[in-house]
Structure formats: structure tokens, C-alpha cells
Design brief:
Mean pLDDT: 84
Low-confidence stretches: 92-97, 109-114
Largest sheet: none
CATH topology of the largest domain: Rna Polymerase Sigma Factor, Chain: A
Radius of gyration: 18 Å
Helix content: over 70%
Oligomer: single chain
CATH superfamily of the largest domain: RNA polymerase sigma factor, region 2, helix turn helix motif
CATH class of the largest domain: Mainly Alpha
Distance between the termini: 49 Å
């Protein structure tokens, strides 16, 4: 069943829970991992993802399907993530950065995986980017979204999405060269 059919089923009130559950199962992982790349901490990503799905439940009746569901969903996730980051800044906490720094300075062998020096530099460079550039970079580099979809998700123009991506790459290159 397509996303569109599930949304129509949800909006008609026919097995609302079943339709939502199928959408959740289909899109839960990509949404979670996108959020996690922005906030870095697993617990924070869980909290934001939960808020995203609650908002989707509450707003899905009004979704007009003028864009793809995944675009709308990533837009909701993007906004919730930015709200969370802004709230953390207001509270003067930088737990996500501290956690990343701790993990980079004290790598663990929990999963038997060792991070390479390049991965560490890349993660540090990504963490240094402003939120919007970081989000655009992650969508383009890791999710392979085209600029049109990124522009739709971030509420900017295609040119703005391209500029954010290229500025992010430029800043990361400088950061990695200096590290």
C-alpha cells in the first residue's frame, strides 16, 4: 500500500491506527537516523522522534498531499530538531557536543568497531557546521536527496540549498585541513 493510500485511509478514519502504524514502520528508521545525525545523542534523538510522530498523528488529518509524505515528514522532523537545538542553546547546555567530544577522545570498543582518524575528523567537521548547513549536508551526503527535496524540507530555495551544501563542504574541508 502506498503512503498516499495509507494517508487517505487515516484521513477517512478507516483503521486509523493501522494506517499510522504502517507509515511509522515504513519511515521510522530514516527519520530517527536523520535526527540522530543532527543531535548526536541517542536519547535526544528518541525524544525528538517521538515528538515528530506525535505531531504527525495530530496533523495528518490536515495533510493535503501537495508534496510527498516523506518530504512533509522530513520537514516536521527538521523543525522539531531545530526547536530542540534552540531550546538546548537557551538552556546553555551542549550535551550533544560534549558527548561527541567524549566519544572521540575516549573511543569505546562496545561494538568491536574502531573509528578511523578520517571518520573522527569528518564527525568533528560536521559538528562544527551551523545547524542549517549541517542538516543540508546530511540530507545531501548521507540521504542522497536532490536539491529540490532539500529545499522543500528546509523551506528554502534550490539555490539556497545548493549554497548551504557548498558552504558546508568548504567549511568542512578547511576544518579537516587544519585538524
Amino acid at each position: 500500500m502506498t503512503d498516499q493510500a495509507l494517508i487517505i485511509q487515516f484521513q477517512n478514519g478507516d483503521s486509523k491506527e493501522d494506517a499510522f502504524t504502517q507509515l511509522l514502520k515504513r519511515h521510522r528508521e530514516p527519520v530517527f537516523f536523520q535526527i540522530k545525525k543532527m543531535v548526536l545523542e541517542h536519547a535526544d534523538a528518541d525524544d525528538i522522534a517521538q515528538a515528530v510522530w506525535i505531531k504527525v498523528w495530530n496533523k495528518l488529518d490536515g495533510f493535503k498531499q501537495e508534496s510527498a509524505f516523506s518530504t512533509w515528514l522530513f520537514r516536521v522532523a527538521y523543525n522539531e530538531t531545530l526547536n530542540f537545538i534552540a531550546q538546548k542553546k537557551r538552556l546553555k547546555t551542549q550535551a550533544a557536543q560534549n558527548e561527541l567530544d567524549h566519544n572521540l577522545d575516549h573511543p569505546s570498543d562496545q561494538n568491536g568497531l574502531k573509528e578511523t582518524e578520517i571518520q573522527i575528523k569528518l564527525e568533528r567537521a560536521i559538528a562544527e557546521l551551523p545547524e542549517k548547513q549541517r542538516f543540508v549536508f546530511l540530507l545531501r551526503y548521507y540521504e542522497a536527496f536532490d536539491y529540490e527535496k532539500i529545499a522543500s524540507i528546509t523551506g528554502t530555495t534550490v539555490g539556497g540549498a545548493k549554497a548551504n551544501y557548498h558552504q558546508a563542504v568548504k567549511k568542512m574541508t578547511l576544518f579537516i585541513e587544519q585538524a
